[in-house]
Please model this.
Amino acid sequence: MKSTFITLLFLLGLTGVASAQEQDRHGELPGNNGPSIVRVREVTRQLCNSLHLNEAQYIRLRAVNQIRLTRLDEIAWQYKDDIVEQRARISELESQYETECRRILTPSQISALRSESQHDDIRSTIDANEGGVG
Model:
């Protein structure tokens, strides 16, 4: 009886250690699930409303947005200490995203997307300058 209890206690201790190590390993990695489905739908829905996408375009763009948002999360995690490299990778990703959008969208939709992204860039620059001292 005493040896069974000691064996059981030993196995529980090993299980606890293994579980803690597994949690540490997952804590070091970026999210395995990628961006949430809600986030992908929200981004794609905003584009759908502003660009007047048809259903086929919406479905294809949703898949591209899933990849883009996943890659953005990975880049942010991988290059969190190297801002210059992070910006270079994001710029490269945005170039690839625009290429994929050209395959899906019409020329008028692409120009609307560009003007919308330029408007967002200006807005983010203004927001970055707000909240300063004085």
Observations:
- The CA atoms of residues 115 and 121 lie 10 Å apart.
- DSSP finds five helices and no strands in the chain.
